[in-house]
Amino acid sequence: MAGQPIVGTETDAPHLASLARLNLRGRHLRLVVDGGEPVDVPEPVVEALAEVISVMRQGRAVAVVPQNTQLTTGEAAQLLGVTRPTVVKLMEDGVLPFERPNSSRRVALRDVLAYTERRTRARREALDQMTAELADAGVYDQDARRGRDASAERP
Q1: Which of the 8 DSSP states describes residue 6?
Q2: What is the DSSP string of 29-96?
Q3: pLDDT in tens, 34-43
Q4: pLDDT tens for each residue of 94-135
Q5: How far is residue 55's CA from residue 61's CA, in Å, rounded to a whole number?
């Protein structure tokens, strides 16, 4: 996959925390390199930087890749957290579109990300439906329906 993962170190943690406290989203940012002239940073770059800071503060790796990047089945599997045969099955079932420029399959990163969004949305909707059904059946008491842990309020 294009773009090598970047992982922060322990020595980066205080710097990342300082940057996070600046709350860059929606802010105007000017960059000065080695005492040169200040350059305005475009808003999409500021948003991307804020996201990178947020992810790296969690100790996770970051890679910047164009969305039209083509992934191997192994790379897609790693990104999705599934096995390579699962990705191949998703492709063969028509769930993940793919190209076959040679004997191997390739899938666009944007399609993998779109699949991830669909999968997340479907899971969330299923959990909401199950929660609603259990609440209607009286499994949850009134406090739990309001999102509070009812057991914490009990003596």
Answers
A1: B
A2: EEE--TT---EEEPHHHHHHHHHHHHHHHTT--B----TT-EE-HHHHHHHHTS-HHHHHHHHHTTSS
A3: 999 999 999 9
A4: 999 999 888 899 999 999 999 999 999 999 999 989 888 888
A5: 7
The backbone torsions φ and ψ at residue 127, rounded to the nearest 5 degrees and listed phi first, read -65, -40
Q: What gap in Å lies between CA 138 and CA 134, rounded to an integer?
A: 6
Q: Kindly report whether the global pTM for this prediction surpasses the value 0.90.
A: no
Spans of all domains in the chain: 10-57, 70-142
CATH class of 70-142: mainly alpha
Amino acid at 137: A
User: Are the C-beta atoms of residues 83 and 77 closer than 8 Å to each other?
Assistant: yes
- Residue from 99, 18, 12, 108 nearest 62 by CA: 12
